[in-house]
UniProtKB/TrEMBL annotation:
The keyword Methyltransferase does not apply. GO terms for cellular component: DNA-directed RNA polymerase complex. This is DNA-directed RNA polymerase subunit N. One of its GO terms (biological process) is DNA-templated transcription.
Length: 82
């Protein structure tokens, strides 16, 4: 699926942030994951309230509204399968 050019709700441009988002998330995950035991993903942990890597990257890119975040997170990257 292609990334939409604008957010469906607020109209902010989101397509220009897709490639930097993917690159930064992959870089952070590769930097963070060095051991096979580190691959356990713990999304809901009541002891810590740290943001996920994706949340931090979206903050850096200026995607603060949840409607714009949904446009990025809800996109499925299928171009390699086509």
């Amino acid at each position: 699926m292609l990334i939409p050019v604008r957010c469906f709700t607020c109209g902010k441009t989101v397509s220009d942030k897709w490639i930097p988002f993917i690159r930064k998330v992959n870089d952070e995950k590769n930097k963070e994951t060095t051991n096979i035991k580190d691959l356990d993903i713990d999304y809901i942990n009541l002891e810590t309230t740290d943001k996920s890597i994706e949340g931090k990257v979206m903050d850096e890119l200026g995607l603060h509204r949840y409607c714009c975040r949904r446009m990025i997170l809800g996109n499925v990257h299928l171009i390699t399968n086509i």
